[in-house]
Amino acid sequence: MTIRLLLADDQELVRIGLRLVLAAFDDLEVVAEAADGTAALEETERHRPDVVLMDLRMPRTDGITATAAITEKYPSTRVLVLTTFEEDEYVFGAVRAGAAGFLLKDASREKLLEAIRVVHSGDSLLSPSVTRRLVETFARRGVSSAPSAAAGKLTARERETLILLARGLSNAEIGAQLHVAETTVKSHVSSLLLKLGLRDRVQAVVFAYENALVVAGQND
């Protein structure tokens, strides 16, 4: 199966570099490019790519607005944000807009390929560096002192799963921690996302920190 890609970045050299890297792989095809968020939405409508590699700071329409429009109008298209450490607030906005993954622009080719394939498969991805930065930001701004009423919908095991997920554990690692099969963990994750009205694991991480289920800097 070929994964059809749209490259959205206002820097032409970045798009050229990405296209050259991705052209080396038979299962990846760049079907369109866009220099701003408005063009990204237009090209998505025209080509219906599987994955959009989205820059955040762009002219006319920024990446957050474009991500929200794409995920609302074309839910089968997944958005992978390429970000830098200086864009914390943009990352938060893109999470809420429905982005499925976040990767730093200085990531290796292997990490980029992994990220594209992960989000295309329907899963979500936060690079460890971006996750750490999100947590640091939560620590600076503070969160509510108690979970929201929505958290009360979760069973005890779903709550445990959410907490471990928010700490960056994979399904396999969560399973080992809770002494259950990985398939059971996947079931818990699907259930808690449905109950909380969240799109994916990325939004689940944000929900856990915003609702004090996990506190930045706390490991227990």
Task: Describe what this molecule looks like in 3D.
This protein has 220 residues and is an alpha/beta fold. It folds into two domains: 3-136, Response regulator (Rossmann fold), CATH 3.40.50.2300; 144-210, Winged helix-like DNA-binding domain superfamily/Winged helix DNA-binding domain (Arc Repressor Mutant, subunit A, Orthogonal Bundle). The protein is 51% helix and 13% strand. The protein has helices spanning 12-22, 37-47, 63-73, 88-97, 109-120, 128-141, 156-166, 171-178, 182-196, 201-210, and strands at residues 3-8, 28-34, 51-54, 78-83, 101-104, 125-126. It has a six-stranded parallel beta sheet with strand order 2-1-3-4-5-6, sandwiched between helices. The longest helix has 15 residues, at 182-196. It is globular, with a radius of gyration of 17 Å. The mean pLDDT is 85.
β-strand number: 6
Task: Name the CATH homologous superfamily of the largest domain.
Answer: Response regulator
The ordered string of helix (H) and strand (E) elements is EHEHEHEHEHEHHHHH
Helix content: 40-55%
Question: In CATH terms, what is the architecture of the largest domain?
Answer: 3-Layer(aba) Sandwich
Shape assignment: globular
Poorly predicted regions are: none
Number of individual domains = 2
Which structural class is indicated by helix and strand composition? alpha/beta
Largest sheet: 6 strands, parallel
Strand content: 5-15%
Top CATH class of the largest domain: Alpha Beta
Rg on CA atoms, Å:
17 Å
- Helical stretch count? 10
